[in-house]
Give the backbone structure.
Amino acid sequence: MANCLVIVESPAKVKTIKKFLGTSYEVDASNGHVRDLPKSKMGIDIEDDFEPKYITIRGKGDILAKLRKEVKKADKIYLATDPDREGEAISWHLMKALKLDELSSKQVYRISFNEITKNAVKASLKAPRTIDMNLVDAQQARRVLDRMVGYMISPLLWAKVKRGLSAGRVQSAALRMICDREEEINAFIPEEYWNLEASLKQPGSKKNLTAKFYGTRDGKMSIHHKEELDQILQGLEGQSYVVEELKKGERVKKSPIPFTTSTLQQEASKVLNFSTQKTMRLAQQLYEGVEVKGRGTVGLITYLRTDSTRIAEEADKAAREYIQEQYGDKYVVQGEQVKKGGAKIQDAHEAIRPTDITLTPAQVKESLQRDLFRLYQLIWKRFTASRMQPAVYETTSVKVGAGEYLFTLSASRLSFDGFMSVYVQEDDKEENNMLLGKLEKGTALSLDKLESSQHFTQPPSHFTEASLVKAMEEQGIGRPSTYAPTITTILARRYVAKENKNLYVTELGDVVNQIMKKSFPSIVDITFTANLEYLLDKVGDGSVQWKTVVRNFYPDLKEAVDKAQEELESVTIADEVSDEVCDVCGRQMVIKYGPHGKFLACPGFPECKNTKPYLEKIGVPCPKCGKEVVIKKTKKGRIYYGCEANPDCDFMSWQKPSTVKCPRCGAYMVEKGSKLLCSDQQCGYSMNKEVK
């Protein structure tokens, strides 16, 4: 039996895959990329037709040395990195770093699988292939373009604005989208409008119906101001209310389609309150494999970076059989749900789904950490629902006449739950209005009261991470693998701040965006960026040569950089002054940003190099010593609350302390959701936050 070596990206996959293969297989990991462009310089030889100059990544020497030893012992080498452009490029870099293309005595193959299951891994070994250089070139083109933008524009931002800034091909376009939305919000002028509702009594029922003002028999009309409302109210005086039209019908709510990367990030944000970064981190764990009691290490979901909604035939069949067995024939969907419109779909992948539908959330709950379980449950329910029949509502719509005016009311009742027996979204909830009694055309209703309310039109909402991902996908900006890193970068650079899920442009972000719009309009142009993404996709399918894209891109970028260096004026952004005094020289310290967040620094640098940790006060006195409580972080990044006088005072709390004292025992209370809880668990007293 030949000795075989399988090289994967992540050590987490090694354990999962090893149990599928016999003793003749060795499985090892590259820990991601082993070669890249150097950090110290651009690493692209412009004169030599933009040839990239790759080097071994620092710290990967020992990993490569170990892999070389394994290669010597093996007869066959299988490169089993992720099934996308990045994974293809990692396999190619491994081929070069290990000189596998020079080993005539070895058989070297590329294999890929969409899920880490025994069947998928075994099937891939039976269908090995060569490295797809079109995919590699698409990744090289993306890397080279991103490097050019970053290494040519970022130094300019350092010189003209401040050190530590960066520009990026996708991040700058995403920042532009957020800034444009901010401008829309700031420019928005609210318009007044009024709502009018009639509370109507129906025969034989104690419960009133609420009908909304519609307009006249000539058509729908809006009430723009109080004068119009008063005129309508005057016209309604003394009028009788009669049902003039009643229609019964049926409304079908389609089953959801399975998750793509984008829709998973959006739904996890909305339902689970996860950031895009957290969603991808947890999904990666579910894909690579987790310990499940009685099953060992199991890859629970398919590959997480995809914009396809396609499902493998075997998985589709298994899902329909499971639904038939658990819910009955009438719940099994007929036909296939199809994604509407959108950009190019990389259909080599499937949608995100559970690898085994019979492994229900209930069966894995004890084996998974809370957030891993919640994400798996979301994916499992969404996929199962996608293979189920639509939900059906019985609907009733009513028009009520009152003089020359019309009011409308509608109601719906769920007559067949279909997919909603598994998966219910916020907008799936029934309407509140219930039609009771025998309502029919000609029924006279008596007016209980008319209620009017003044409103103003609202500006567009701020982007959240979820809505930004949706907008990026719709505009063709970035790809499934880049959404989360892009958002993480603009937050880390302090171009954007996040408050209560909303993304707000900072002063720094606005300055950088203005510079980019003025000096590099094509880089932040949404259409240009989307077209470039399209060209990269064409490189991936072999239609366009990657260096052709780079050759066309570079001259305009170079010209813009040269022009900006001459014409762009320097911008000064003042550091925020804190209330801390430098205990070395007496100056008022300022807030700076470093790799690990905020810190305090003396503005007298370089004469005075004093720095201090930045302690964010919450306006609550320390229960132990009376000084201020501040927000702190553990080494792993978990937030807790401690005393500013630490180490002299050892107060700490995982929950946010309150200024309120427990009325039962006098201990300090902590905030948890809408409640205040006594910090003494033996006391156990709780009350609403609003109660003082």
